[in-house]
Amino acid sequence: MTAKKTADPPSAKSLAKSRSIKARKASSKGISSARVAAILDALAQSYPDAVCALNHKSAWQLLVATILSAQCTDVRVNLVTPALFRAFPTPKAMATASLPEIEELIRSTGFFRNKAKSLQGAGRVVTEEFGGKVPQAMPELLRIPGVARKTANVVLGTWFKIADGIVVDTHVLRIARRLALTRETAPEKVERDLMRLIPQPSWIDFTHRIIAHGRTLCVARKPRCADCPLEALCNAADKTFATH
């Protein structure tokens, strides 16, 4: 009689992988829809008119400004873009500009050499592949140099009013973690958690309002918790004031 073969015990590696998958799936679970609604309501009451802080008059200008905003304040970008747009007003003009010309105009935004290459490349792709018009779909936007999901979401949501995702910048990432809406640290995983929790019709307004909140009250160092409309809903470890 042949002995019945028993299954090999799972390896430590497979167990760790399984636990990691379960942890990711649970990262935004246990958060009630009522709590999410309360957060959205508090943000809506506090920042009803919040909009994108980058000055722009077209989808192309917004795309350029958002590329420049990486590792740079919106205030600084708004100081730089008027001269940049006067010099190179269209994607074709940006595509044919020399890198030194672009670099000189955007130098104060930081990482100006890489950004200049991205802007020149963006102008070329928008001109040659999209007929000079910024595309309105995520896959096409992601083909443009210098554009990742954050930039694409800014353009889609702010200019085209298309809620394809949620912008995750430093403010959104910080506040989402403070509010325990996610345990993740990678922007794409934070976005995935937020998209599961926030109703899609609220994605665009949520982005603008949470960024405004991060700039005014929920700052990185010494958040102004005593003035925060979300304080009663927040259990962050670094709170500077608490009523519960």
Short description:
With 244 residues, the chain is mainly alpha-helical.
Question: What would your notes on this structure say?
Answer:
With 244 residues, this protein is mainly alpha-helical. It folds into two domains: 33-50 and 165-233, Endonuclease Iii, domain 2, CATH 1.10.1670.10; 59-159, Endonuclease III, domain 1, CATH 1.10.340. Helix content is 55%, strand content 0%. It is built from twelve helices and no strands. α3 crosses α4 (74-87), α6 crosses α7 and α10 (170-178) packs across α12 (203-216). Residues 1-27 have low confidence and may be disordered.
Globally, the shape reads elongated
Percent of residues in helices comes to 40-55%
Domain count, please report it. Answer: 2
Strand content: under 5%
Query: How many helical elements?
Result: 12
Q: Report the end-to-end length measured between terminal Cα atoms.
A: 68 Å
Q: Biggest β-sheet: count, sense, barrel?
A: none
CATH topology of the largest domain: Endonuclease III, domain 1
CATH class of the largest domain: Mainly Alpha
Low-confidence stretches: 1-27
Mean pLDDT: 91
Supply the CATH superfamily name of the largest domain. Hypothetical protein, domain 2
Counting DSSP E segments of at least 2 residues, the number of strands comes to 0
Layout of secondary structure:
Elements: H1 12-26, H2 33-46, H3 59-68, H4 74-87, H5 91-96, H6 99-106, H7 112-129, H8 138-141, H9 149-159, H10 170-178, H11 187-197, H12 203-216
Helix pairs in contact: 2-12, 3-4, 3-9, 6-7, 10-12
